[in-house]
Automatic annotation (TrEMBL), chain A:
Pfam assignment, any one: DUF979
Protein name, as recorded: DUF979 domain-containing protein
Lineage: Bacteria, Pseudomonadati, Pseudomonadota, Alphaproteobacteria, Sphingomonadales
Entry keyword Cytoplasm: no
InterPro entries assigned to the protein according to its UniProt record, in alphabetical order: DUF979
Transmembrane segments: 6-23, 35-66, 96-114, 126-146, 166-190, 226-244, 251-272, 292-310
Superkingdom in the source lineage: Bacteria
Keywords: Membrane, Transmembrane, Transmembrane helix
UniProtKB/TrEMBL annotation, chain B:
Keyword Transmembrane: yes
Entry keywords, A to Z: Membrane, Transmembrane, Transmembrane helix
InterPro entries assigned: DUF969
Protein name, UniProt field: DUF969 domain-containing protein
Membrane spanning residue stretches: 53-69, 153-175, 187-207
Amino acid sequence: MIGLNFVYTVGGAAFLAFALLSASDRGNSKRWGNAAFYGLLATSFWAGDLLGDIGNGVLVLGLVAVAGFKLMGRGTQATTTDTEREAEAKARGNRVFLPALIIPAVALAGTLAFKYFPAVFDSKQVTLVGLTLGVLLALAACYAWFRPRPLTPLAEGVRLMDSVGWAAVLPQMLASLGAVFALAGVGEVVGGIAQGIIPDGSRLGAVAVYALGMAGFTMVMGNAFAAFPVMFAGVGMPVLVGIWSGDPIKVAAIGMLAGFCGTLMTPMAANFNLVPAALLELKDQNAVIKAQIPTAVPLLLANIVLLYLVSFL
Amino acid sequence: MWVLLGIAVIVAGFALRLNTLLVVALSALVTGLAAGLNPVDVLAAFGKAFNDARYVSVVYLVLPVIGILERHGLQQRARTAVSALKGATVGRLLIGYMLFRQATAALGLTSIAGPAQTVRPLVAPMAQAAAERQGADPDSDRVPALAAATDNVGLFFGEDIFIAIGSILLMKGVLEGFGIEVEPLHLAIWAIPTAICATLIHGSRLWRFDRKLKRESAAVAEVRA
């Protein structure tokens, strides 16, 4: 059956290629750090289920060590110059968007279609399988159209991967932190505090505390990924779904977006708010946040209204 | 209450500008110890969760495709598409850019635009030039800041419509933890109402910004007269 094993096999192969290409990149003085980081991720994809919980924990410590000791650098993969790219863009026109569109098209089609073939596809993982197939098809289209050397797409992938660097595993790390928070009962403590604030028997009050808590917690943590598991476990699930019989899908989806409103208002989300201010050489490093607050506040209110109107239908 | 120390660790770590992965690991350790777990159990719990959450990192599979397309002019073509937006006013220009950013992010093309890719080289200078034609102060931060803000709003409230973005996969994982099986598509559909609200709220701000510039330049002209 085609499911996560297929997805993780392809994922592991990609990271192994990233590791090998990084290791052979003599122009990068930190090439062994990059190779170790991507090698650990390849190991995780291919052998994560065989390592055991403590083994996976040690693997994470390896990733943290590479990042914490600043052992990663930007690779020196050869790519085209801006002039060459301008010429290519002119020659190829809007068709250059097409291979990129194969990915969402196949992911969407797969999500809808694979469910009818439960013998072939794991029905719980249709989107990820569709995404992976979409990437493979898009790559095939690129090979057929551009006729690159076999390793060129992977080298271009490393170039982009290096620009993300250690931050690539941050979402996965924050999801794992959420699991430790859940084990330690952080959700219950935060939920207890939040539930103490909710006026008795007020559905609107519960919705407001959930959404404002999501945004506020995101502002503290700098990322909705870290806030979501805590607020969902603390208020969303026990109160909005448990007491008020809300639809967990809508509560989750709109709650996450309430968190995104928090991301717009915090300097902790440095990559979105402080980095652009620096790139644009603004005098006030908080100028982007100040420009976002008048959108974020009414949008947060809109999310509260949406949650209140659609979650309990 | 002591388990909230892990949150304090995160705030302190950001304030001290420590590496974020290190801060996350330290926060997990402190939280676990505060809850009375031993360090090895915390390590195992974190390792298990990390292994269960691998699907969050599957999104990087798209990088070789984006990379080879960039090699053949994807970003340059995206810039041509954006510069075709050259409307007469800063408000209309930024509304057009926001729609472009939302639509492409909803298709998973989150990295074809951004502060470095489009805002600094293209959107901010075009917006500034338009604003100056409308009589805005060339030394002010507010137009470039508004351009960067528009990029973020378009990205945040477009990307969640794509079914294989990290936040959707994270929600799927968390819901599974509660025994609720969910298709990413159903989560993505419920990102659409907020996306529409974001377009309306930010779009109306941009529209009013044009009128504000008009009023300001009229006021300046009146003082001169």
